[in-house]
Design goal:
Helix content is 16%, strand content 37%. It is built from one helix and three strands; from the N terminus they run βββα. The chain has a three-stranded antiparallel beta sheet.
């Protein structure tokens, strides 16, 4: 998993949590979450967590799971 910054047609940047997988020998990408509305410091913390670094989440009360795909 990784975070990818993507520009849309209006020039705004969105931050997506994505993963790579292989299907029929081809590499495909799946979007797991759109985290664009989070503050920049929380997006950076998520980047460090996904890269395997130890990070203390200072404001865990502000993180909330709204929708989960099975």
């Amino acid at each position: 998993m990784y975070i990818q910054a993507v520009r849309n047609q209006w020039g705004a940047t969105t931050s997506l949590i994505r993963e790579n997988y292989r299907e029929d020998g081809k590499v495909k990408h799946r979007t797991l979450a759109n985290i664009s509305k989070l503050p920049l410091h929380q997006i950076e913390q998520i980047k460090h967590i996904l890269s395997g670094k130890n990070v203390q989440v200072l404001d865990s009360a502000s993180l909330e799971i709204r929708n989960v795909r099975e």
